From TrEMBL:
Pfam families according to UniProt: Thioredoxin
Name this polypeptide is given: Protein disulfide isomerase
Organism: Maudiozyma humilis (Sour dough yeast)
Upper taxonomic lineage: Eukaryota, Fungi, Dikarya, Ascomycota, Saccharomycotina
Signal peptide coordinates: 1-21
Superkingdom assignment: Eukaryota
Length: 294
């Protein structure tokens, strides 16, 4: 990239951020990233999902996406303020500024990533304490160092994002499609966290998490019947037992009207599908444990 292009992009970035800073806080729904540390502050925040738009100023599709992305951010911002749902933050990265670092592996533009929050031990990772720095961390360019000095971002010890937390959007770039994608990722992640809690004998459920309590009750029934046991904070069973339990759930589901609009019926279907996922996770753990023994 020519130096003049980088300078132009840098000046554009500074003007964009300055204009953003002049807006009232409740009108800022998309954060314009000015520094890599700021990027990692967002993407490594526990309990918050980060929606990242990577773009360039010369990309026509990026210009088309801009108002759609901002409208989405606004709608999620209202939901964030209302509470009751996971925090969803929207940020945008100008790849003319961060082309050699944050954008180096991207195939084209625009690109949207949904980055899932750090949870558990992941939140304690400190690259500064490691001997090997991940390949995703690139040396700062001269212009990024200047940018860092100008804006003085707060220090952040987390300077990479685990690949397993990144989900790339590949659908039609319209508001409803992107929203469904985000909501699906959030729902699946929450389900995964709930199942992990269910299958951890030492963990309890939040009082408002009905699915978690349902799962714990189901696990307790399996233990009482002798189909399941637990040692060392993990449950143990065998594949044949799981197969029998899965058949029972499938028979229960056959007796339900899957197309019913009745809320009670829909909840029953949801519950059975959740318990089936619990069995899937139990089976995966059992197969892995068997392979380890072999």
């Amino acid at each position: 990239m020519r130096v003049s292009t980088v300078i132009t992009a840098l000046l554009f970035s500074l003007l964009h951020r300055t204009a953003q800073c002049l807006k009232p806080n409740d009108e800022i729904n998309v954060t314009y990233i000015m520094d890599k540390s700021e990027f990692y502050n967002f993407t490594n925040t526990p309990d918050a999902y980060t929606i990242v738009k990577f773009y360039t100023t010369w990309c026509s599709h990026c210009k088309t996406l801009k108002p759609i992305f901002e409208e989405l951010a606004s709608s999620f911002s209202h939901e964030n303020k209302a509470g009751g749902k996971p925090q969803v933050n929207f940020i945008e990265v100008n790849c003319e500024v961060f082309g050699n670092s944050l954008c180096s592996s991207l195939p084209g533009f625009p690109i949207i990533h949904v980055i899932k929050p750090k949870v558990g031990s992941d939140a304690e990772i400190d690259v500064a304490d490691n001997d090997v720095v991940p390949e995703t961390v690139q040396p700062e360019s001269l212009w990024n160092r200047i940018l860092h000095k100008v804006w003085k971002p707060k220090a952040d010890k987390h300077n990479f994002v685990e690949p397993e937390r990144i989900v790339e959007f590949a659908g039609k770039r319209d508001g409803p499609t992107i929203r469904r994608f985000i909501e699906t990722i959030v729902a699946k992640t929450l389900e995964e966290e709930t199942i992990n809690t269910v299958l951890d004998p030492s963990s309890g459920c939040a009082s408002e998490n009905d699915l978690c309590m349902l799962g714990k009750s189901y696990i307790s029934e399996l233990e009482t019947s002798g189909a399941l046991s637990h040692t060392d904070n993990k449950y143990e069973t065998d594949v044949s037992t799981l197969s029998k339990e899965r058949t029972k759930l499938q028979n229960m589901q056959r007796n339900l009207d899957l197309g019913s609009e009745d809320e009670e019926m829909k909840q029953k279907v949801k519950n059975i599908r959740f318990l089936s996922q619990v069995l899937n996770h139990l089976e995966d753990a059992t197969v892995c444990h068997t392979k380890d023994e072999l």
